[in-house]
Automatic annotation (TrEMBL):
It comes from the Eukaryota. One of its GO terms (cellular component) is cytoplasm. This is Acireductone dioxygenase. One of its GO terms (biological process) is L-methionine salvage from methylthioadenosine. The keyword Metal-binding applies. Coiled coil: none annotated. Fe(2+) binds at H90, H92, E96, H135. It comes from Clunio marinus. PANTHER family: ACIREDUCTONE DIOXYGENASE (PTHR23418:SF0). Transmembrane segments: none annotated.
């Protein structure tokens, strides 16, 4: 089961630690969706091809692009700078979709009250981060993750660092947050 929790305010220690509040305050999947619009699916990281659920999700959501990213010192070109930019608070004009094949890391998202929620992702997790939400990513202390990335159409990876409040995708995200997130069906 995915683990997610409200983060502490400590910005002085290693970003790759869990950064729980004291006592820890966990957020369940339903609450995570209501507070942020983040969606999550769990697949078997070994048998996912036979299971067919990934194909269903891809077809339903129209993901036409797929590639793979490995974040490790050995595999990711310009590792230090890339990790710095992943951890800068930013948003995208499109959803950020990741399917973790191996390793782990943390996606941090801002909720409606601007609190950080830390979401731990491990092998088998699919996370869908809405367009227009402020978020960031860090590896954990193991410094390794391998994930598939999906996109509708030609991929746009460009991060827009906070503040980006005038962007249309930000305004539309805030409207959805106000109205309450609903699962979109065809
Ligand atoms: C696990 S994929 C690396 C993080 C990333 O691609 C991104 O855009 C973070 O916001
Ligand atoms: Fe991002």
């Amino acid at each position: 089961m995915v683990r997610a929790w409200f983060m502490d305010d400590d910005t002085t220690t290693d970003q790759r630690l869990e950064h729980h509040r004291n006592p820890p305050e966990y957020v369940d999947l339903q609450k995570l969706f209501e507070l942020s619009g983040v969606e999550y699916f769990k697949l078997d990281p070994v048998k996912y091809k036979e299971e067919g659920m990934l194909d269903n999700i891809r077809k339903q959501r129209g993901y036409s692009y797929e590639d793979e990213i490995t974040c490790s010192r050995e595999c990711l070109p310009d590792y230090e700078n890339k990790l710095k930019s992943f951890f800068k608070e930013h948003l995208h004009t499109d959803e950020e979709i990741r399917f973790v094949l191996d390793g782990q890391g943390y996606f941090d998202v801002r909720d409606a009250q601007d609190r950080w929620i830390r979401i731990e992702v491990v092998a088998g997790d699919i996370i869908i981060i809405p367009s227009g939400i402020y978020h960031r990513f860090t590896l954990d202390v193991n410094n390794f993750i391998r994930a598939k990335r999906y996109f509708v159409g030609e991929p746009v990876w460009l991060p827009h660092n906070r503040p980006a409040d005038d962007m249309d995708c930000r305004k539309s995200y805030l409207n959805k947050l106000k109205d309450g997130f609903k699962i979109e069906t065809c």
